[in-house]
Amino acid sequence: MLLRASSDAIDAGADVHGAVGGATGNVRHGGLLMAYAEAANRDPEAARALDDEVIAAVGEAGLVDAAVIVAVFNGLVRSADGIGIPLDDTMLAATADARSVLGLDSFAGAANNPG
Amino acid sequence: MAEFGADTFHRPVDQSILSAFEAVWDGLATAGTWWTASERVAIVAATRRSLRLPLGETAPDIAGLSDAVGPDGLSPLTLEVVRRLAVDAGRITRDWATAAIERMGQGPYVETVALVVQTVPIDMLCDLLGRPRQDLPVPGRGEPSRVVPDGLGQEGAFVPWAVDGWSGPNVARALSFVPDDNARRMGIVTSMYSGRHFEEMVWRHRALSRPQVELVAARTSAVNECFY
Known about the structure:
The complex is a heterodimer. By secondary structure, chain A is mainly alpha-helical.
């Protein structure tokens, strides 16, 4: 998860709690994008009710971007869980605090990692 | 044949993404490393039909499922593996995966994962953008090659993956047991996510900023209860 690193790079002040449905910090239109991501994951066709609002905020290309990211990560999460991919060593160390704060260590895939 | 032409979407989708989709669809219609083309297409059809179990219903024990193939060429065992991958992947444990791999074999298991993870993003993008899902291709003839690539090793995942000379994130070698499918999958990932810009923390090549992209990605991973 590169939310914090990419936010720090432009001094955007993202809040990683956005990953679990909490505050998104200063990510522009973060609340709307999080709502879209959640709806898109739970019911893709129903999520289209948010299209106009998302387009008004980030443009049509931004809506397509958001849809593309939801879609590709639905493949990536299944790759990770289906193959039991352990976190890369650098990521394991760099995300220890965030995983603890966000409760990610309780996910089933956490058992695929040492420590 | 251009099945994913830009004019089949009513919103603008990058050509590199459409080309990656075409490559996946072409790959579905040909014999894989462990499954025939007919079996590959049947696995994708089963992926589309997969449903979550009703609340309170227990998933069947892998050990008790028949491996006798049905009319579509897939067994109840394979269909349950497809179902778990398609709609309940967040609950996959090492014990479950070990049992499934012992019964199916490493190659068929990895290729099944590969087919699900290549086609779920395509169907999902179509759903999100209001485009009908693409018809499944007519399977071609031919036998699977059943070739295990050189240079694989066991490094903590459920199955062996590329180790000789490997440098890169684990996710990129996840399906290296089936190299052709892994290449097509990475075509999807690269075109839809980072392009050539993964190492850059500031993105200007797409409409959303990188923090916006990563927020959507992180929420998606968490909703799916994915640790990685």
